[in-house]
From TrEMBL, chain A:
Residues in Solute-binding protein family domain copies: 95-481
Annotated Gene3D superfamilies: Dipeptide-binding Protein, Domain 1, Dipeptide-binding Protein, Domain 3, Periplasmic binding protein-like II
Region annotation Disordered: where it falls in the sequence: 27-47
Pfam families reported in the protein's UniProt record: SBP_bac_5 (PF00496)
Name the record gives this protein: Peptide ABC transporter substrate-binding protein
Bias type Low complexity, positions: 27-41
Cross-referenced InterPro entries: Peptide/Ni-bd (IPR030678), SBP_5 (IPR039424), SBP_5_dom (IPR000914)
Alphabetical UniProt keywords: Signal, Transport
Subcellular localization(s) per the UniProt record: Cell envelope
Family: Belongs to the bacterial solute-binding protein 5 family.
PROSITE patterns registered for this protein in UniProt: PROKAR_LIPOPROTEIN (PS51257)
UniProtKB/TrEMBL annotation, chain B:
Protein name: ABC transporter permease
Entry membrane topology: Multi-pass membrane protein
Predominant location category: membrane
Family: Belongs to the binding-protein-dependent transport system permease family.
NCBIfam families: Opp3B
Cellular compartment(s): Cell membrane
The keyword Transmembrane belongs to this UniProt entry's keyword annotation: yes
Organism: Sporosarcina highlanderae
Leader peptide range in chain numbering: none
Amino acid sequence: MKRNKLLLLLALSLILSAVLAACGGKDTNNTNRGNNATGQNEGNGEPDAEQVLNLIEGAAIPSVDSAIVEDQVGFNVLNNVNEGLYRLNLDNVAEPAMAAEEAEVSEDGLTYTFTLRDANWSDGTPVTAHDFVFAWQRAIDPDTGSPYGPFMMSGVLKNATAISEGKMDKSELGVVAEDDKTLVVTLERPVPYFLSLMSFGTFYPQKEEFVKAKGDAYATNSDNLLYNGPFILTEWDGTGDSWVYKKNEHYWDADTVKLETINVDVVKDAATAVKLYNDGKKDRAGVSGDLALQYAGHAEAVHQPQTSIFFMKFNQEKDGKQTPLANINIRKAIAKSFQKEDLADVVLANGSSAANFIVPKDFAFDENGNDFRDINGDLLVYDADEAKDYWQKGLDELGVTELELEILGGDSELSKKMDEYFKAQLEGNLKGLKIKLKEVPFAVRLELEGRQDYDIEVSGWGPDFQDPISFLDLFVTNGTNNLMSYSNPEYDALIAASKAELALDPAARYEAFAKAEKLLLEEDAAIAPIYQKGLIQLQKPYFKDLGVHPFGADYSYKWAYISGKNK
Amino acid sequence: MVKYIGKRLIYMFLTMFLIATATFFLMQTLPGSPIASYNKLNESQRAIVEKKYGIDKPKPVQYAIYMKNLAKGDLGTSFVFKGKSVNDLLVNRFKPSFILGAQAMVFGTVVGILLGMLAALRQNTFWDYGSTFFAILGISIPSFVFASLLQYWIASEWHLLPVGLWNDGWKSSILPSIALAMGPLALSARFIRTEMIEVLNSDYITLAKAKGANGYEIAFKHALRNALIPLVTVLGPVAAGLITGSLVVEQIFAIPGIGEQFVSSIMTNDHATIMGTTLFFSAFLIVVIFIVDILYGIIDPRIRLSGGKS
């Protein structure tokens, strides 16, 4: 898989925060509840007679064409109106959805055979294997111009890269419909997390006949779409700030769906969102910034952990010359010189937590269901005394007594507060260090990062699929998102092995990841982890069983219902 | 008059052309790509996507294509709203913005004029000081602060009107219109007061009084009409103020208007939409200023537009 990355902007994190796929198929038999991402408002009451939910979205829907969607809102809508071979359940486990049962996987891990269940589109016609072949070919077809098709499929589906570069015909893509109910997928290399990708929007089916009949008008409003998911979309004019989900009576699992109507409005101002919530007009609202401080202790506040990690990147080479940060002792000194718990609890105070790691917690699990975090523990933790020793050693090696370094950060209020905190902590703990702050908009930051025109960058990453490689791939030598001249052959070898000889050996693969993460942080201090992002949401107590997903689409309304609203 | 209007129309097109050109090239200096997932693709995949969106061509070529389409009235396809034309986007979002703007303009100027007249006619009394105080508040406090205050007290605390959104009929439009109207209201009150006082001291008012015309007649027919002229002059800039105000006020009240779209198109590097909204706002302003100029002649026949011989 390419090292695909998405840097998150702190300020816009709600809008920009990373999208993507879901979880491994290995523990699909696990059905115990309480794993639920929010762990709150779990259903136990009787559903009310009236099942109408009122929600807020942070941005308008740019597209609901599964081949084209590349944003958070679009993927969220897709997840609720359409369905792929697999779907993330309330416990964030991908389970068969359009697929009738677990896929048959060949011994070499290269061929997946899916048998489809009897399911219909919202026009009453059956969903077939051809619908998947058509949709996937369309997503990778250069004529479609989709960024997400090539992004999700390159290096995973056979021939995807060549097709996306225009060197091969789309019919060569590794997906074939053997008959109406049998779909055979061939991979480029064994991909241990492949089944989790099947719940991701880019891999949803599209009915060829319908798409071709609509032509350019396909997916431009709610009438020009077909649905095979729990809900259908209505009253969406293509660019508007409101839309409505209605229960899809043709959905194969319609008996499970309790909500009849979901009214959605776009509200970008967080304070307005909270006022609408307090007024009873909306049933859920996010709180951030100062509002988070104010509402953190609110009886209806729900902490929603996320899987984005924010960290400092140490640029080791600028204008062809080594920077002071090429010195390992300088890097270790800085990485260990700021207190993270205070930062998360007092400065950010938005549900985020301190991170001493790059692979987030509650994200990736080994074959026995153990959190990768519990396996590899804390790395590169705060220790001001050690930091001072490293600092002195580093300065001696460089032959200087003082250093001036620049921290490149975002321009939101929160980013600025955080940068001030770093400046105070770093300058306070490391004698002779002077920190300059440079706070710029997201796009400018990306550009400066691209040119490696920075010393220390406060950066973020959200996973593309549920596997540690989504994070660890970032730091291989010359990786497209490395952009700090970090290079360790041993690290590269571990990552390469995880994709080749270790791909079919889950235990050894996780060992390699654990070793790589230790190298990256403990040995090399190539980056300094800061925090794992979290959100605080207000949610009405009568709003039950919302599916909250830490990757892929954010929410599932399939199981949600209203209980006790008018009591 | 016809000649004047013709000349003005030519200038208007020239202005639009310059605005379109300047915006087009300034926009290219925005960092980042209009393709959101740009950094997730490899070189040749990027090239293919760029070609698809027509941003692989040299800038002057892109400019020529854009201007050619613009001449046909086609504002292009949005980069964010996939496959949707910017024209549709503007049309869909124009209505709420227009209703708010029109209501704010009418409410602001009418109430402002009444307040200004009251102040002038009751000079140096409680009414005068009261209306002056109100006007100073209106000028110095930005519309979004009013918006937040109105939203907090009237909607959140007293539950008299909706907190926001655009689904409650005319009720949804009241608070944002009032917030937007504060600027025009204050401005017109100040202008009318000053002008009225001056007009009321002029000879023809004394004459009207001597002829026995009653107070209302003097105030509305003689004094107000003459005092209106300077106000009309500033209506153009006031309309501009409404647009900039609406960018934030629409966001605060979660109104699906154009102002809100303008802001987010810049944040997302949606070049076609940035161009479309900028041109739309410019055209709107230019037309308003044009109408204002025509209005001069109607309100005050002494102002001759064609300047000279006629």
